[in-house]
Write a structure and sequence with these properties.
By secondary structure, the protein is α/β, with parallel strands linked by helices. The protein has two domains: 159 residues, Rossmann fold; 162 residues, no CATH class. Strand 1, helix 2 and strand 2 form a beta-alpha-beta unit. The structure holds S-adenosylmethionine. The site of S-adenosylmethionine has 23 residues, from helix 2.
Length: 356
């Protein structure tokens, strides 16, 4: 998923820097601003026990599948509906269930009625976040997943797994420049194509992992471990507004929508890390409350917190250091008139080895 602040292309830098810093006794890796979950997934693959968290529900869903779930889904209660599953190896059942959902009849539901032109053209506010057919397909699949879950046809792991596959698939065909803060007037090429559900891979291992959906400053007081990795937002762009449609598809809770873009209420998801007046205090509280041996922080040289403040606050807990890497800026759109200072930023990985 193309996500603001994703660390996908920085994974090697993070892995190498973290491994250079820690000792051999670390078992738990904690990713508290998890987003797409790629950082936790990398360390899960390396055998760590992962704790993952994000304030956004769609991220919770992605992380439930990618991090907490560590076995292939069995889909036992779907045998009467999809009989071939019974004779299929467990590792190959995902594909069969996904193909079944990919081919169910499309249906006009909440997404079509509120976020597609066909559903909004007679309303005061018209929206075109998806093609009509993609909106209907999304509604049909999302509703089927909910019904299966309510009727105990799928368990919790299977439920999150299927919603994750839907989010990953439809996001690639959204009619946006990149984020959901606005939609494009005309359907762009990729948005005209019907999305296809694909089974996402599961990282199979024997460790138990845990995923939370909380404000980080509350959660930090309830957990402990070896490595704490922090990747907060760097600037004022709230994830709740930029990814509101993923939230609505993930929750499918028929929210009251506001304004041109169909924003849902997000007062409980407004992040202090996106507010200049609150970020320093929130970060200091987070660092002082943490119960980990190593704390790492990803941040760049243009964020709301300045480097001096970060160093000062992290040094309160022990020996401070940092690694750097040049990085291409996230481009939300092709707007050439934007007043960018430079095309690259410097990405920092700050760390503190906590004094015992
Ligand atoms: C820079 S992104 C993380 C990207 C992630 N490392 C990745 O590679 O996909 C920051 C994340 O922090 C989450 N977030 C912001 N404020 C939060 C808070 N107070 N508590 C928990 N999560 C928060 C956002 O929802 C967003 O997913």
């Amino acid at each position: 998923m193309n996500y603001i602040g994703s660390k996908y292309s920085l994974l090697n830098f993070l892995e190498n820097s973290i491994e250079q810093t820690i000792d051999n006794n670390c078992n738990t890796f904690c990713d508290l601003f998890a987003g797409t979950g790629v950082v936790g997934a990398k360390f899960k693959e390396k055998g760590y026990k992962i704790i993952s968290n994000d304030i956004q529900y769609y991220s919770y869903v992605l992380n439930k599948s990618l991090i907490e779930n560590h076995k292939d889904p069995i889909f036992k209660n779907l045998f009467p509906i999809i009989p071939i599953l019974k004779k299929t190896k467990i590792s190959e059942r995902k594909k069969i269930v996904i193909d079944y959902l990919d081919n169910i009849p499309h249906k006009e539901g909440f997404i079509f009625n509120n976020f597609c032109l066909g559903g909004t053209k007679t309303k005061e506010i018209k929206r075109q976040y998806f093609s009509d057919e993609n909106g209907k397909k999304c509604d049909a699949i999302r509703q089927k997943i909910e019904i299966w879950f309510e009727e105990n046809k799928i368990n919790e792991d299977e439920y999150y797994y299927l919603i994750t596959c839907l989010l990953e698939a439809i996001d690639k065909h959204a009619n946006t420049a990149s984020v959901y803060g606005a939609f494009l007037k005309k359907l762009k090429k990729s948005a005209q194509k019907l999305f296809t559900l694909k089974p996402i891979n599961i990282i199979v291992n024997d460790e138990e992992h845990k995923v939370f959906n909380m404000d980080v400053n509350k959660l930090i007081k309830q957990i402990n471990g070896d490595i704490l990795y922090l990747d907060p937002p760097y600037n004022h762009r709230q994830y709740a507004t930029n990814y509101h449609l993923l939230e609505t598809i993930a929750k499918y809770d028929y929210p009251k929508l506001h304004g041109k873009t169909g924003l849902r209420d997000y007062k409980n998801q407004k992040s202090a890390y996106c507010q200049k007046s609150k970020v320093k205090e929130a970060f200091k509280e987070l660092i002082l409350s943490s119960n980990f041996y190593y704390i790492f922080l990803s941040y760049n040289n243009e964020g709301l917190l300045n480097l001096e403040d970060i160093k000062k606050i992290m040094s309160l807990r022990g020996k401070y250091g940092h690694y750097t890497q040049k990085y291409n800026r996230f481009k939300a759109d092709q707007n050439k008139n934007r007043n960018y200072k430079a095309n690259t930023t410097t990405e920092y990985l700050h760390y503190v080895i906590v004094k015992k």
